[in-house]
Design a protein that fits this description.
Residues 28-162 form the MOSC domain. There is one protein chain. The chain is of the alpha+beta class and 175 residues long. It contains 6 helices and 11 strands. It has one domain (19-159): PK beta-barrel domain-like (M1 Pyruvate Kinase, Domain 3, Beta Barrel). It has helices spanning 3-9, 64-73, 84-87, 123-129, 133-137, 169-172, and strands at residues 15-22, 31-33, 35-39, 43-44, 59-63, 91-94, 105-108, 111-118, 143-149, 151-154, 158-161. The strands form 2 sheets. Strands 1-6-5-9-8-7-11 form a 7-stranded mixed β-barrel. It has a 3-stranded antiparallel β-sheet with strand order 4-3-10, with no helix packed on it. A hairpin with a 3-residue loop joins strand 3 (35-39) and strand 4. It is globular and about 45 Å long.
Length: 175
Amino acid sequence: MTPLQQLIADVPQTGCVRWIGVRPESRGPMLALDAVEARLEAGLTGDHARPGVRNARQVTLIQWEHLAVISALMGRSAEQPVTPEDLRRNLVISGINLFSLKGRRFRIGQAIFETTGWCQPCARLQNNLGPGTFQAVRGHGGITARVLQSGIIRLGDSVSVEPVPDSGYAAFNPG
């Protein structure tokens, strides 16, 4: 493993759930929650996301630290910052770079997820928040994930990378 590969592989940070929200209807308002159930291949209980193994966007996550960046890029004052409800993501996480979760399994509370892609802004977001939203959110929109193991997620729960299961490869390739 090269030094760069080692740096990429090592994720010592542990994140924290700062906000939880679901969208009961496709274009309806977000509901903020203290806890939610993540369901295998179905997303979060109460969210309108389409269930199924093919839905790569079962859960959306955004970085807490990026809310201030997006607010600044949109020219919002401290009195009117962009909120998690505005960006319509399910989970807001602080303390760990969500992009470091690419290609990994990670645990939030009792549930296990895998990253499925980047959560890009859409035209509807710009329609809701005004001109400049699309460009302000680009690169800061978070990630999408699929639920691999059901479980409860609560505000304050930790977010950490799951260890890679031992494949037994070393036993067959001693050199």
